[in-house]
């Protein structure tokens, strides 16, 4: 990713609050327009079928303008994927904030994910496909994002242990990964069997219920 | 078989052989139908008369591989010892030992599985049913031996086992796990699942 050089002052200096100039603002707007166009086309056609040329045309700009903001299609796709991950993390954190037993809170968390991605299934499929193939550096960046998501699940589990609902000693990372794998695998039912959010939630409740049963005192 | 059928079969064999080589050499994603046609010395058109798409050729090759693996597992299954958990861990470990020899192919296959058409999904489910029924038989053996509860939803459980089984290939690939490390991870995952199953409350288990 391109970064503008930053001069680091040796001494703390007073800096007037910066008002972004027109050039910066227009660059941000262009980037936003490219992202929106790409999101629309990836959703409509899938990752493979959407070309940079189509994306540029859809955004009403030249391919050059797209490349000024993103290295290539993979870079552009990653930016969208990361935006989604942040958004979903937000939704899941909100869902986790509700009071109640661990099982209910977990289902609210996973349900928030299902509700969001069921509106964006083709994009989710592309994301899942890419998750097996991306190069190691992209995988490491994606791991940072999924650490946040898995952290929401792990925190609910840990709080359950603190409140005495679950036993004290268990591997919260292993359990949250197992639940997460299950959560992801269920999306196949949405894609190929037309399952909706409610059906997915019910299924996930059964699966999480099974795992949690083993963690009770 | 008429002359035309014989010819068609010969073309199909050549296409499969060429594709197999290319997938091994440069990987599934980089291989194009045109390259397969060139290597097989047939026209692009005749590739398409025998297969609908690249993923069809790829799956034809992989499903053959799975068939061999599952047949081997089926042969071994009666000799496995221990609890249902032990047996299923063994089945998965043997599968990992085999598939990890060509891990890249497995990874490409699983990546492709997220976008393929329903017709292929159905075919894939049919192929994997053999593996799932081996998991199920191990569980039923456990039920008969009195160490697995008779009142749990085995379909749900088998489904979760399968999700874990497939997902672990990703971990194997990105975390560079050996088949032994993968087996150790599987053991920990299965112990969580079996522990959960054993502890399920009576009223919860019949929920379908």
Structure characterization notes:
The complex is a heterodimer of chains A (217) and B (208). Chain A contains nine helices and no strands. Chain A has 217 residues and is an all-alpha fold. The longest helix of chain A has 27 residues, at 136-162. Chain A is globular. In chain B, helix 7 packs across helix 8. Chain B is mainly alpha-helical and 208 residues long. Chain A binds chain B through residues 46, 48, 125-126, 128-133, 136, 139, 171, 174-175, 178, 181-182, 184-185, 188, 191-192, 206-207, 209-216, and chain B through 29, 107-108, 110-112, 114-115, 118, 121, 153, 156-157, 159-160, 162-164, 166-167, 170, 173-174, 188-189, 192-201, 204, 207.
Short account of what is shown:
Chain A has 217 residues and is mainly α. Chain A is 73% helix and 0% strand. Chain A folds into 2 domains: 20-70, Homeodomain-like (Arc Repressor Mutant, subunit A), CATH 1.10.10.60; 72-213, Tetracycline Repressor, domain 2 (Orthogonal Bundle), CATH 1.10.357.10.
């Amino acid at each position: 990713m391109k970064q503008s050089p930053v001069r680091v002052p040796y001494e703390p200096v007073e800096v007037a609050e910066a008002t972004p100039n027109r050039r910066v603002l227009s660059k941000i707007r262009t980037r936003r327009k490219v992202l929106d166009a790409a999101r629309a086309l990836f959703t409509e056609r899938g990752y493979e079928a959407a070309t940079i040329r189509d994306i540029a045309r859809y955004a009403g700009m030249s391919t050059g303008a797209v490349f000024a903001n993103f290295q290539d299609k993979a870079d552009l796709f990653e930016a969208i994927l990361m935006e989604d991950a942040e958004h979903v993390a937000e939704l899941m954190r909100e869902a986790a904030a509700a009071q109640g037993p661990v099982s209910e809170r977990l289902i609210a968390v996973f349900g928030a994910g299902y509700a969001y991605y069921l509106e964006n299934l083709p994009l989710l499929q592309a994301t899942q496909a890419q998750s097996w193939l991306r190069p190691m550096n992209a995988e490491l960046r994606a791991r940072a994002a999924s650490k946040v998501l898995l952290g929401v699940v792990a925190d609910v589990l840990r709080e359950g242990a603190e409140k005495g609902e679950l036993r004290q000693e268990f591997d919260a990372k292993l359990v949250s990964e197992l639940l997460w794998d299950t959560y992801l695998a269920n999306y196949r039912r949405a894609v190929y069997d037309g399952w909706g959010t409610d059906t997915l939630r019910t299924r996930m409740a059964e699966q999480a219920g099974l795992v949690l049963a083993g963690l009770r005192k | 078989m008429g002359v035309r059928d014989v010819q068609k079969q010969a073309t199909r064999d050549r296409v499969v052989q060429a594709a197999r080589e290319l997938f091994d050499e440069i990987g599934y994603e980089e291989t194009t139908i045109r390259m397969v046609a060139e290597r097989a010395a047939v026209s692009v058109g005749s590739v398409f008369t025998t297969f609908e798409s690249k993923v069809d050729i790829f799956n034809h090759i992989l499903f053959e591989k799975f068939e061999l693996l599952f047949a081997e597992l089926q042969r071994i299954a009666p000799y496995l010892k221990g609890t249902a958990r032990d047996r299923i861990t063994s089945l998965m470990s043997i599968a990992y030992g085999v598939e990890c020899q060509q891990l890249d192919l497995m990874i490409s296959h699983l990546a492709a599985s997220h976008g393929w058409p329903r017709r292929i999904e159905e075919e894939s489910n049919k192929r994997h049913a053999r593996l799932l029924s081996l998991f199920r038989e191990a569980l039923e053996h456990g039920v008969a031996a009195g160490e697995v509860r008779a009142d749990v939803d085995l379909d749900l459980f088998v489904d979760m086992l399968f999700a874990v089984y497939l997902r672990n290939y990703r971990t194997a690939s990105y975390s560079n796990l050996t088949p032994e490390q993968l087996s150790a991870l599987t053991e920990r995952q299965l112990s969580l699942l079996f522990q959960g199953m054993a502890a399920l409350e009576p009223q919860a288990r019949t929920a379908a």
